[in-house]
Specification:
The chain is α+β, with helices and mostly antiparallel strands. Helix content is about 25%, strand content about 35%. It is built from five helices and ten strands, in the order ββββββαββββαααα. It has an eight-stranded mixed β-sheet with strand order 1-8-7-4-5-6-9-10. Strands 2-3 form a two-stranded antiparallel sheet. Helix 2 packs antiparallel against helix 3. It is globular, with a radius of gyration of 18 Å.
Length: about 210
Amino acid sequence: MGAKVSTVMSSGGATSRRGPPTDFAGPSAGRERRLDIHIALATDGQLAASRAWERSVWREARVLIAECPAPHLAVSMESALRTVAASLARDLGWQGAGTVSFSLDDRSGVFRVIDAQAQPRSQAMPAADHEPIAAHVLEIRIDGCGDRRLPCTRLMVCGATRGEVLRRAYRALSELPGPAGVDRAFLMNRIASRAFCSGMTGRRLDQAVG
């Protein structure tokens, strides 16, 4: 299925880009996936786009689990997202690193940019610095184990396969010191669910797990 772009806009609204004509206004309710493409200024001066990171679990606008590669994301779709992200960063004149975030409807192939944030750097850095450090990576964020006044705890779990990473992540959460806060219990429930293990993410996961 060819990728369809409904609307692509920068966070400041300065740039607008249209893809092939489509009647879709964006992902349908309940089928939305959130994906991030990290952009970096490579040492040769070119803007390089990383592989897609998926916001697999989010709640109240907080990303709790992000992973790379995104589960069951077609190579053609990831390539389209990377191309759009790099083009947008180039149009906006980014001179450092940044992230372009997308909303994707898996069934229709419709996606749109929902945010574009530049992070200026004083020097160019290798594009490899923005690539995942292993074959599969899961980043887990826990906001103070339920106490919002405490700093966020971030776990980066790596492995050769997604299954290996999920097992390691569940064990790491169960062994995390401190009180068993709401976030930790919620995340362990998500990671252990059959729906999440099958590759379901985002709103679809919320509907399946409840």
